[in-house]
Predict the 3D structure of the following.
Amino acid sequence: MKRRDFLKYSAILGGVGAFPQILSADPGNTLTGFKAIVLVDTQGGNDALNTFIPTGSDSKTGYNNYRIERGSGVAIPDTDLMGALRNLVNGGELQIGSASDNPYNAGGTNGAKHYMKGFYLLDKQNFNSKIAINAMMPELAYWLDQGRGAVIQNVGNIGGPYTKSQLLGDKTKRPPSLFAHNIQNLLAHLGVSSSMTVPTGWMGRLADQWGNVNSDPIYKMNINLSGYGIEHAMFGATTSPMNYSYMGPTQLGSDLDSAYEQWVNETRTAGNQDPFRNLIRSLRSSSYAETVQTLIDWNSVNSDTDLQGITDAYGNTIYDPTSQHHEVTKAQMAMDTPVNNRVIESFKTVAKLITIAKDKGFKRIVLSITVPGFDQHSHLKRDHSVRLRGLSLGIDAFMRAMQTKGWLDEVAVVSLSDFSRSTASNGDGSDHAWGGAQFVLGAVKPGNYGVFPDLTVAGDDDISHRGRLIPTTSYSEYYGKILEWFGASDSEIDTALPERQNFDATRTDLNFMA
């Protein structure tokens, strides 16, 4: 066997399913049905105010104050595109067709110009015209308009229901390194806002308690597809996630496979043993076999006829087994910059893994996706337009698969981010801030949830003089509602989210899960 071939196979041993998950108590006999969580990290700090535009009439939390405080340079104009979007729904599906049909099309291919055309006002499904979706996300707006999503206001890392005066008077009540990307993103994954030294994440702590909930020797409950770094949320003290490429498991060539088998199984005399060969033999019963099994499952799901028949809003086949990539062209989108195709492929892989999990009779699965590039200090309109367009297309690819399969009531797509951006613009973008809106799709009660913040710069909810809004819902509360739906008990949730006990358990404005 050539050295490069050996290295390829050695790398596989550290990839999919290489290290067995240490098991603790197994609650599998108490969980019913199937449920999946898809964590979507908009990394870099998504500008929530220009993603979910506040459109209410309140003088502090509504659109007029948003427009005043953001300024005309970056505030999305008050032009409702929902009528144009609804006209594109045919047979219960969004069908955009040609580039000129894009509701955001403002002429030409300038994404920044499209970005400022307007928004999709959510005027039904309990949204009550208080929130609108950025023009670059027609697919997300469609799913919310169909009652398949909820928007939770002003979520962030905060350890208790602290007031502005408390946070100004005692800085220890603030998260460490507030406004720093790496620390705030880490805290959002840990599910603990007061310390960045906690060694485990919130989903990892649940996995520690549940163990091998699916009674499967290969697939773990937590599967990380980030491709952009370690997803700390998925790591526990005694459990770790399965790491999976956003394009699926590594493919093994048949010739190389045969050569590998021959090399591993070569008989050696007692005095001529190869320690590497012996190590591989000891590991292959789990690691190599696991890699082969994931490939078998992957090839099987690529033959799923339900998935193969799904097309996107432009008529492109999404789950085409003969093509490695599903690409929406710049011409179709009327844009001069392509979206990050990895985002769309990640959502497709998640849909396939859920299909595999359902076929195997699993009870619970958690999958993690990272969507990078949301740190728009400058060129907000140009760059944010591309990020939102790619995210919306990825969401749509996933949601169409779940709808086709009849599984929308069994999944929850859950967004998170480092932080949101400042209410005040710096002229060409927005800066690091704190609380911001998040979304959940799938098995939800549609509508707005949480508390709309006062958008006034230097106002009651601004910790600074830049419009850095103090969260009114903590990640602990937000995640806690997800885990309640997932089937965790109160004690299991409190172990996974220890700061949740600092908040009012009787809140009724966060019951967004179905």
User: Anything to note?
Assistant: Residues 265 and 281 are 8 Å apart (CA to CA). The first strand starts at residue 35 and ends at 42. The two ends are 55 Å apart (CA to CA). The chain has a mean pLDDT of 90.
